Amino acid sequence: MNTVNDYLKSGAIDIAPLLSLVLEKSNTELYSQSDYALNNEQQRQLSSFIQQREQGVPFAYLSGNKGFYHLDFKVTKDTLIPRPETELLIDIALDLFPDKEEPCHLLDMGTGSGVIAITLADKNPHWKVSATDFSQAALDVAKTNATTHINFSQGSWFDAAPNQTFDLVISNPPYIEENDAYLDDLSYEPQTALVSGIDGLDDIRIIINNAPDHINKDGYLLLEHGFNQQEKIVSLLNTKFHNIKTFKDYNNNDRAVLAQIK
């Protein structure tokens, strides 16, 4: 087995994208040049990728990048792989501050590869954008992804932005419950960016409790969350926030909450 057609017929997981990655050919080129014979090095690299995919390594970690909204992002095993569901946060934030002339002072906490902060900063270069993460390795990845100036800082939640206030605080924090069976499918991604206590809400509680000291008058907090957590989060927000709005993702699952500081 050494031609493109041989491999395409093999039934290996993600074989067409893997071939495109190894050969640097588009999907169309693969099928139009299906009699192309891979050399020994290409076969070795492809075999390694096939084996890793069979073991469950996500394709994004093999390719080293993942598309999100209108940009491509470098990803490593130090960062979560961006999900389409998180693009919902971008739409909400853009709708919240539609005035292109009025800058928004934004904080993205737990930025990972930087998809939220970088996408919003790229869409609105006049915004003042800060991004934080507990992981310095993740921040290093985010910095390479940035397309405009962003103030990156390392630390746990608001500890990374002391004595600062913002018009919008946004976060896609860890929110999966400990021992959730779903974690078996995410074993290659950083667990500290996924898991947050018995009910998955430990980090969200920290954010909600501390957010009022870091949000400007009439400012907002926007959170992504699990499909079954929205009611509890709204209850947590009720004390110090109002104008609470809830959002479903593209699969019609509860996915985000927006709240305005009282």
Features:
alpha/beta; Rossmann fold; seven-stranded mixed β-sheet; two-stranded antiparallel ribbon; 10 helices
Integer tally of domains: 2
Q: What structural class is derived from the secondary structure elements? A: alpha/beta
Radius of gyration using CA atoms only: 21 Å
Low-pLDDT segments, ≥5 res: none
What shape does the CA trace take? elongated
Number of strands: 9
Account of the 3D structure:
It is a single chain. By secondary structure, the chain is an alpha/beta fold. It has 2 domains: 4-55, no CATH class; 62-261, Rossmann fold. Helices cover 33% and strands 21% of the residues. It contains 10 helices and 9 strands. The strands form 2 sheets. It has a 7-stranded mixed beta sheet with strand order 5-4-3-6-7-9-8, with helices on both faces. The radius of gyration is 21 Å and the shape is elongated. 36% of the residues are buried. The model has no long low-confidence stretch (mean pLDDT 95).
Outline the fold blueprint.
Elements: H1 4-8, H2 15-23, H3 27-32, H4 40-54, H5 59-63, E1 65-68, E2 71-74, H6 87-96, E3 105-109, H7 115-123, E4 128-133, H8 136-145, E5 151-154, E6 166-171, H9 202-210, E7 215-224, H10 230-237, E8 241-248, E9 254-261
Parallel strand pairs: 3-4, 3-6, 4-5, 6-7
Antiparallel strand pairs: 1-2, 7-9, 8-9
What's the quick description here?
Helix content is 33%, strand content 21%.
